[in-house]
# Entry
Amino acid sequence: MDDLRDKYVGLIADASDENTLEELRVQAVGKKGEISLQMRSLGKMSAEERQVAGPKLNALKDEINSALAAKKTALADAALDERLRGEWLDVTLPARERPAGSIHPISQVTEEVIAILADLGFAVAEGPQIESDWYNFDALNIPGHHPARAEMDTFYTHRAEGDNRPPHVLRTHTSPVQIRHMEANGAPCRIICPGRVYRADYDQTHTPMFNQVEGLAIDKDISMANLKWTLEEFFSVFFGTEVKTRFRASHFPFTEPSAEVDIQCRWENGSVKVGEGDDWLEVLGSGMVHPKVLQAGGIDPAEWQGFAFGMGIDRMAMLKYGIPDLRAFFDSDLRWLRHYGFASLQQPNLATGL
# Structure
C-alpha cells in the first residue's frame, strides 16, 4: 500500500493538466483502478486480515481522492492566474474614448422650431415630397407664366411617352401641405408644415434640397397683428433674446397683402448678432392667405381668413449657430458638428426661453 501511495501521490503532484489528472483518477480509484481492485480483494481475506487491511485501504483511497481534489484546485487557480495576467485591466485608468454621435443641425433646429410653435398652438402637418402641378402651383394661385414653373427652377418628374397624367414635381415649398390640410379638415386650423423641398439652385446660400417650415392659421377674425405677434414670440424664444421685427410690403401669389419680415441685427467681424444693433436682416415671407388659396382648399373666403408664413430651417440654423456656408450641412466630415456644439437635442420652449 505504501508503494501505491507513493506512486499516485507523486504522479498527481506532477500532473500538468486536468486531462492527465483524470487519467490518474481512473487508474487509481476508478472501477478498475488499482486501489479499487485492492478493496475488492478484501472479501478473500480472513476476518483478522480484513480488520487490518480494510482501514488502510480506505485511508489510502481518501488520501488519493484528497490529493486529486487539491491538485485540481491548484490547476484551476493556475489557469485563472494565467488568464488574469493576459487579460489584466487597471480599473483606475481613464476609460477609453468612445465615439459619440451628434444630432445634425437641421434635425435639431427642426425640433426646436416645432417645439416653439407647438407651444403657440400649432400642430404639425405633413404631405408628399412629390406633388402634382396643381397642388404645388395652381392651388396656390401661381400662374402658368410664373418663373418658378420653368424647368430651370423646378425639378419635374420624368414622363414616359404616352403618359398623359398631370405633371408632377419635387415640391418647391411645403405650401401644398396647407392645401391638403384645408381640403381634409376645413377651418379653423393652426398648423405648421416642416419638411424637405427642392429647387434647381446651388451656391453658398442655396442648395438643390433644403428644409422649410411654413405656418398657417385660419379663423374668422385673424389679422396681420396676430401674425406679427406670433413671429416675434417665435424669434425671441428661438434666438434666446428679444427680437424686433420689421414688415416690408412685398408680393407673393398666395398671400394678399404680403410682407417680407426682417429681424433686428448688427454685423460684427463678418458675423451677425440677432436682437441688437440698428441693421435689419430679411428672414422669411408672410401675409394674409389669398382668397383664391382658401377656395382651392375648400374654404369660403367670405367667412374665413388667415395668415401664412414660411422660412428656411437651414438658414435659421446658420443664423443661430453662426454657420457661414449652407453647403457645410452636406459635408461628409462631421467634425464641424462638434465645432458648433451639436451633441444633444435641447428643445426651447416659451416657459424657459432656452
Observations:
- The first strand starts at residue 123 and ends at 124.
- The chain has a mean pLDDT of 85.
- The two ends are 89 Å apart (CA to CA).
